[in-house]
Design brief:
This protein has 192 residues and is an alpha+beta fold. It has one domain: Alpha-Beta Complex (Ribosomal Protein L22, Chain A). The chain has five helices and ten strands; from the N terminus they run βααβββββαααββββ. A hairpin with a 5-residue loop joins strand 2 and strand 3. Helix 1 runs antiparallel to helix 2. The protein is globular. 33% of the residues are buried.
């Protein structure tokens, strides 16, 4: 199996007849307390369940798996989605970080070297958002989430795509794989 990232806009919620199994519904209820997040998560897991066509189980870190395939999920204000791969992966998607949050976030997550790169970046919003997503996706992959301590992500293999004002990142444990980015059921065109 190759690595596929399935992304859906939040105005494209799942509308099929699929009924999620109890263990998936319990996982959603345990993970998302707000009704709006629950609705998006239900859509995300419905698309996921429809694509894998079988039972999902969860690791001790609450990460979904299917057979021997790794799955990582994410949602934002505009998109929800997941990545499926036969190698260890993490996934994150975020809107571009807004101007007034750049400096505080830069201080929190960037290393000294990354701050120098940030200062010279053509798009500071894009640079910082990609770094944030790489670090968050890496945290999901290893099962710890985003840490409050800045760490260098130069050695973390990843692929990313930009969808309008949002960034989508897939990280890998060992070496980068080709990623097929799929937006609302259609392959995303362009370089990633």
């Amino acid at each position: 199996m190759s690595t596929k990232a399935y992304i859906y806009s939040n105005d494209n919620l799942y509308s099929g007849d699929l009924v999620l199994p109890d263990n998936v519904v319990e996982h959603i209820d345990d993970s998302h307390h707000l009704a709006s997040k629950n609705k998006i998560s239900t859509s995300m897991y419905s698309y996921l369940y429809e694509i894998v066509g079988g039972e999902l189980t969860y690791t001790v870190n609450n990460k979904p798996i299917h057979d021997s395939n790794e799955i990582s999920v994410s949602h934002s204000n505009k998109f929800h989605g997941f990545v499926i791969s036969d190698v260890s992966v993490g996934f994150d998607l975020e809107e571009l970080i807004v101007e007034d949050k750049l400096n505080p976030l830069k201080e929190m997550i960037l290393t000294k070297k990354e701050k120098e790169e940030y200062a010279n970046a053509k798009s500071k919003q894009e640079y910082l958002t990609v770094r944030w997503c790489v670090k968050e996706a890496y945290g999901k992959m290893i099962g710890y989430g985003l840490t409050k301590e800045a760490f260098d992500c130069d050695d973390i293999p990843y692929k990313w795509a930009r969808i309008n004002d949002s960034i989508v990142v897939v990280v890998f444990k060992n070496q980068p794989q080709d990623v097929e980015f799929i937006l609302n059921g259609e392959p995303l065109s362009g370089e990633h």
